[in-house]
Design brief:
- The complex is a heterotrimer of chains A (about 350), B (about 500) and C (about 325).
- Chain A has helices at about 1-5, 10-25, 45-50, 50-65, 75-90, 100-125, 130-150, 160-165, 175-190, 195-205, 205-210, 215-240, 255-265, 275-295, 305-320, 320-335, 340-345, and strands spanning about 35, 40, 155, 170, 170-175, 245.
- Chain A is mostly helical and about 350 residues long.
- Chain A has two domains: about 1-30 and about 40-295, ABC transporter involved in vitamin B12 uptake, BtuC (Orthogonal Bundle), CATH 1.10.3470; about 305-345, no CATH class.
- Chain A has a two-stranded antiparallel sheet. In chain A, strands 3-6 form a two-stranded antiparallel sheet.
- Chain B is of the alpha/beta class and about 500 residues long.
- In chain B, β9, α6 and β10 form a beta-alpha-beta unit.
- With about 325 residues, chain C is an all-alpha fold.
- Chain C has a single domain, classed as ABC transporter involved in vitamin B12 uptake, BtuC (Orthogonal Bundle), CATH 1.10.3470.
- Chain C has helices at about 10-25, 25-45, 55-80, 85-100, 105-130, 135-155, 165-170, 185-200, 205-220, 225-250, 260-270, 285-305, 310-335, and strands spanning about 160, 175, 180, 255.
- The chains are: A mainly alpha (about 350), B alpha/beta (about 500), C mainly alpha (about 325).
- Chains in contact: A-B, A-C, B-C.
- The interface between A and C is large, with 47 and 45 residues.
């Protein structure tokens, strides 16, 4: 029993379950799923669909954090990929053709992949602090996206493009499948190849890894490139949702949501061991939280306040000092004799 | 030799420690230590790594609490709960890393915290004047307005001392002050120390450079394995006796089957040609042949680790080359070294060896996996098999491949590290202090292993501070001193006495 | 003796040596000044009417808020920290002030409230960093989120400000021979001078530098590290509050979406102005030059009639250049 309790996913799962329970109790309609024309609808389905962009970004963020880094540019990169893709579709004569779609998506994602590799170069080769290195794109990225769209919010009408975020496949939202594919791909690449354990090694002890012959530079570089790539796909999904390339709104604050999801899932910001499953749970938790806030009637613009509160609570819980203090408090309250208290100290 | 005309008055110690004991878990770092420091004397604490020197110093400077024992200042018992309290008692320390602020001026580094004021703000002119006065007391003329970072480490150290004496200082602790200084700078430092002696300050001088200890110190206290071996005047103790007391006699263990030295025709596998790196490796020529164990002996700072790191490609040399099978080959990094079959086991097994949060299995297969690349992942079953066989071969306890490496004892961690490197089937392995901090039983196991490796044709470089161990394990011994090779002889031709003499032989003119 | 006395070389060489040994940290500031001058000259050459009293006065007028933010940010970055919340805090205090004014609260109450509001958020961030070991960027990112949310809580849309005192701050222009100066400009310059004096002449200021140089050493030297770090973030928050006042005067309204991305502009200005992100080195005057560089680029881009988004891109590129150069210099000196 203690073994199960000690498993590092216990807290994240418990948090998510608690959140779902609270929601269900206050509005039983939360868990109701209706079927219409062979497609499922409901709050839970909405969460599965709407969490897709965050899922992609958070997966990339997990890998980057595992290498002891951070990627603050993901929101801006989302704006860029949306801008590239929609500009191509807008400029093409055939917005509905699959070929146009393929080119648009490929181009959008390729650009963010290059930007991600650029971040990786700054961090892995030049040795610049990850915060600063990715801050540059966070600053300039949205400007670049605006340039690509010529300063406007490009809108297009393209049925296949819209399908990605609004469409259904076998009853479930297509976007959800995108999430699943990404999760499976990342998990397979990390765990079926040696990349996962080598990444963890680099994050836990970069110097010892270097001495053991691990290719630290390549691993760090790859992490940022992957983050860029995933952010690109997230941007495509986002722009598909609003059928527009809004350089300022795309991926706004998604950096913090992603970091929070990763941290909620049990991966430490200090790098090292990471958990894809944990991040997945973290993403669903955050999405459920957002759904809860919306249901409570809080205007979406105010939701960042609640996210900030959650961040504070999470870091406090994880903070050593709080842990140490509560442990001492607990021991003081439950000590049977002064000797026990001494031992506990 | 210490100047007899300034020998301190030895009646009332300014600092006295009685029965000091410090335990870390089951290890005893200090065992009932008595220690005395008199005003106006320069005193040295001597002992090898792990002897308890740094623990005692931490207790004196408020960084550590004693589990038992009393510290007395001028005869009064005191408690020193923090470094700031130690400073208030007049115990000031100058560390190797110079705990000052390189981005501020010399004057600020001396006076900040007590800076002179004017109109509610800092009076810079007065501060610079104050700094000049303090520096002049020590006979130094350093520009007080200059940034501390613009000066050499030697000067920064002098400024640190100036700060220390700018308030009432009773005891000045100098922790390895000369490691980065050249001869002129050391002379300057010693002049300042003598100034302080005149003022009645007690100086605790910690250094592993025997010559310097003998030059500046009046008395030494020798620690070994956490206990005091004795207190001596430098004028009355021969160097060689001092070292013997520091190193002690090894517990005689089962004799190791020393492998015979390879014959003269055997070609060199790994070699150095005029290899230089910084101040610790100065134009070294060396060869390690097949089936040979070359032991590197020397005191701390002699360059053994630096040489091993340069030989294995972990650090890039400044000049000179590494030769492999007679071919001059650069080894620009550990990856290349591993690919060529040359591996290095670091002396800092915690910070540069074991990946604590990974399992024993993952640690063992790490280098192998890194070599195979990202895509050719070893099957889990194969990993477990490999780990299990090494666990058995080296006697790693606990015998579970899934145990977290960070939870193993030092000796077992060392074995895991060895397993990782040996799993690569290298041609040459450089072991840096592999038996440090390991219990006797494990030590012998590692030593025997070294012999077996050589017997199977591997070239081994073995570094250890324990000369007995080096003698027992090596087929050839190279003695280093301050970056130079002082001797290179077959182990058979040496005894513990003659090796000791080679390691501690004073410079000409001391 | 030779190692400690300055060798009596020929006068010029000795002077240069003494300069570099005393004022090495000024060199990046001079570099920034050089860039500013180069930009102004280039603008003049290209546009013809660039270096005029009108354009230069507008530089101060239009960027007064950024100047104030940069002073606060300098304090924080000098301690090797970072404050990502300043833009959001500016928006929050601005909309809060606008709301209070529109509901009839007198100006003498509203202005202090705005300042206190900013300071409180700064204090919160400082407490998280200092007492709960939260990394500065996470703590200030949380602060940014909180402030942004709070801003929308106060009002979902913009609120016009009609208070004469506030408007006077911006609209009253003192003319001197073709140059003009507003009270907001005076406030901004005042903040710069105050910041420079504090950093240079108070123990608090020197402790800020000390923390950035080596926090551990500063503590061992007995300097009040905890208090100082907290105060640095409070100052940053207070500056954001003050910038909120200035910005409200500038816009004539409070708007919860103000200041998005402003924190990045601020950081860029401070870094371009010669302050090292690793802490311990930099000057408020340098940050001021950085702000003017930002303003000049913005002006040049509007002269060009190009998209305003080019400003951010150019600043981003400049920031990158500075960071890479800083990194190379650090790597070079540590190899020695």
């Amino acid at each position: 029993m203690t073994r199960i309790l000690r498993h590092r996913l216990v807290l994240p799962i418990a948090a998510l379950v608690a959140l779902v329970l609270v929601n269900t109790i206050s509005r039983p309609s939360f868990v109701s799923i209706t079927v219409r024309d062979g497609q499922l609808y409901g709050s839970v389905i909405d969460i599965l669909r709407n969490s897709a962009p965050l899922m992609l970004v958070a997966l990339g963020m997990t890998i980057v954090i595992a290498t002891r880094g951070i990627d603050l540019s993901v929101g801006a990169l989302m704006a860029v990929s949306g801008a590239v893709a929609l500009t191509i579709i807008d400029g093409s004569g055939a917005p509905d053709s699959p070929a146009t779609l393929a080119i648009a998506i490929a181009a959008g994602v390729a650009v963010t992949l290059v930007f991600g590799a650029w971040n990786g170069f700054l961090v892995a080769v030049l040795g610049i602090q990850p915060i600063i290195a990715t801050l540059v794109l966070m600053l300039a990225g949205r400007g670049i996206a605006l340039l690509i769209t010529g300063g406007f919010i490009t809108t297009v009408t393209s049925t296949p493009y819209k399908f990605m975020s609004q469409g259904y496949l076998l009853g479930l939202p297509f976007a959800f499948y995108v999430s699943v594919v990404a999760i499976v791909l990342v998990a397979v690449i990390q765990r079926r190849t040696a990349l996962g354990v080598l990444t963890e090694s680099v994050g836990i002890n970069p110097e010892a890894s270097r001495l053991a012959g691990v290719r630290s530079r390549g691993i760090v570089w790859g992490a940022y490139a992957a983050s860029g790539l995933l952010a690109g796909f997230a941007g495509i999904l986002y722009s598909s949702n609003i059928m527009a390339a809004d350089a300022n709104a795309a991926g706004q604050y998604i950096e913090l949501d992603a970091i929070l999801a990763v941290v909620l899932g049990g991966t430490s910001l200090m790098g090292g061991k990471f958990s894809i499953a944990g991040t997945v749970i973290g993403v669903f938790t955050i999405q459920t939280l957002k759904s809860t806030i919306t249901f409570l009637g809080v205007p979406p613009a105010v939701s960042p306040l609640f996210m900030a509160l959650v961040v504070v609570i999470v870091v406090l819980v994880q903070s050593q000092r709080v842990r140490g203090g509560t442990l001492r408090l607990w021991n003081a309250l439950t000590a049977r004799s002064t000797k026990d208290a001494e031992v506990a100290r | 030799m210490a100047d007899p005309t300034t020998t301190p008055v030895l009646d009332a110690p300014v600092l006295q420690v009685s029965g000091a004991t410090v335990r870390f878990g089951r290890e005893t770092a200090l065992d009932d230590v008595d220690f005395r420091l008199f005003p106006g004397e320069v005193h040295s604490l001597m002992g090898e790594n792990g002897a308890g020197k740094s623990t005692l110093i931490k207790a004196l400077t408020g960084a550590l609490a004693l589990d038992a024992g009393v510290i007395r200042l001028d005869g009064m018992p005191v408690r020193i709960p923090s470094p700031l309290d130690a400073q208030r008692f007049g115990i000031r320390t100058v560390y190797q890393e110079i705990d000052l602020l390189p981005n501020l001026s010399v004057a600020e580094n001396i006076a900040l915290g007590r800076e002179p004021r004017r109109f509610g703000g800092i009076d810079w002119r007065a501060m610079r004047r104050l700094a000049s006065e303090v520096l002049a007391e020590l006979g130094l003329t350093i520009d007080p307005a200059s940034l501390l970072g613009s000066h050499s480490l030697a000067v920064q150290q002098l400024v640190a001392i100036a700060r220390a004496i700018s308030t009432d200082v009773r005891v000045l602790v100098l922790d390895e002050p000369t490691s980065s200084l050249d001869a002129d700078e050391v002379a300057e430092l010693f002049r300042v120390i003598r100034e302080l002696k005149e003022r009645g300050v007690a100086v605790l001088f910690i250094s592993h450079f025997l010559d310097q200890v003998y030059e500046i110190c009046d008395r030494v206290t020798v620690l070994r394995a956490g206990a005091v071996v004795g207190e001596y005047r430098t004028t009355e103790l021969l160097r060689i006796d001092l070292v013997q007391k520091m190193l002690g006699r090894e517990i005689p263990a089962a004799p190791v089957r020393r492998h015979a030295e390879p014959d003269a025709e055997t070609p060199s596998v790994l070699g150095a040609r005029a290899l230089s790196r910084g101040a610790r490796v100065r134009g070294i020529d060396l060869d390690v042949r097949e089936a040979e164990v070359v032991g590197l002996a020397g005191l701390l700072g002699s360059g053994r680790t630096e040489l091993a790191r340069a030989l294995s490609g972990v650090d890039r040399p400044d000049t000179g080359t590494v030769v492999l099978d007679g071919r001059e080959l650069g080894i620009p990094g550990p990856r290349r070294g591993i690919a060529l079959g040359v591996v290095y086991s670091s002396e800092n097994r915690r910070t540069e060896g074991i990946i604590g949060a990974l399992t024993v299995r993952e640690n063992i297969v790490l280098a192998l996996q890194a070599q195979r690349g990202v895509f050719r992942r070893m099957r889990r079953a194969r990993q477990t098999e490999l780990a299990a066989s090494w666990i058995e071969a080296l006697g790693i306890r606990p015998a579970s491949p899934e145990a977290l490496a960070g939870t193993l004892s030092g000796g077992n961690q060392q074995k895991v590290l060895l397993a990782r490197l040996l799993a690569l089937a290298p041609r040459a392995i450089l072991l840096d202090e592999p038996t440090r901090g390991i219990d006797v039983g494990a030590k012998v196991e590692v030593q025997n292993l070294v012999g077996e490796l050589a017997a199977n044709g591997m070239s081994v470089v073995f570094i250890s501070a324990e000369l007995e161990e080096v003698l027992r394990v090596s087929t050839r011994i190279v003695v280093l001193r301050e970056g130079l090779v002082v001797a290179n002889l077959p182990a058979e031709e040496l005894s513990s006495g003659s090796l000791l003499a080679l390691v501690t032989q004073p410079d000409d003119g001391a | 003796m030779s190692l400690t006395t300055t060798r009596p070389l020929d006068g010029l060489r000795a002077r240069v040596d003494r300069f570099t040994s005393r004022r090495a940290s000024w060199i990046p500031v001079f570099a920034a000044l050089g860039i500013l001058i180069a930009l102004l000259v280039a603008g003049q050459v290209y546009f013809g009417n660039f270096i005029t009293p009108r354009v230069l006065s507008s530089l101060l007028l239009d960027n007064a808020y950024l100047l104030i933010l940069a002073v606060g940010m300098t304090f924080v970055i000098l301690t090797a920290g970072i404050d990502l919340s300043v833009g959001a805090v500016l928006a929050f205090t601005a909309i809060l002030g606008a709301r209070l004014l529109s509901e009839g609260f007198p100006v003498v109450v509203v202005i202090p409230v705005m300042l206190v509001g900013g300071s409180l958020i700064g204090l919160l961030i400082g407490v998280l960093i200092q007492f709960f070991d939260v990394q500065p960027f996470i703590a200030s990112l949380a602060g940014m989120f909180a402030a942004r949310g709070l801003a929308f809580l106060v009002s979902l849309s913009s609120i016009k400000v009609e208070d004469p005192v506030i408007l006077w701050l911006q609209t009253k222009l003192f003319y001197i021979d073709g140059w003009f100066l507003s009270p907001t400009g005076i406030i901004a310059i005042g903040v710069v001078i105050a910041g420079a004096l504090v950093l240079q002449f108070t123990r608090f200021g020197r402790t800020i530098y000390a923390i950035g140089g080596n926090e551990q050493s500063a503590r061992l030297m007995g300097l009040p590290v905890v208090r100082t770090k907290l105060l640095a973030y409070v100052i940053s928050g207070a500056c954001a509050g003050l910038a909120g006042i200035v910005f409200t005067a500038y816009q004539g309204a409070g708007y919860p979406l103000n200041g998005v991305g402003t924190e990045l502009d601020t950081i860029a200005a401070v870094v371009i102005g010669g302050t090292l992100l690793t802490g311990g080195s930099g000057f408020v005057l340098g940050s001021m030059i950085g702000v003017f560089v930002y303003g000049t680029i913005k002006t040049a881009i509007s002269f060009l009639g190009a998209e305003q988004s080019w400003t951010r891109i150019t600043i981003g590129a400049l920031l990158l250049m500075f960071v890479v150069v800083q990194r190379v210099i650090v790597a070079r000196s540590s190899r020695r």
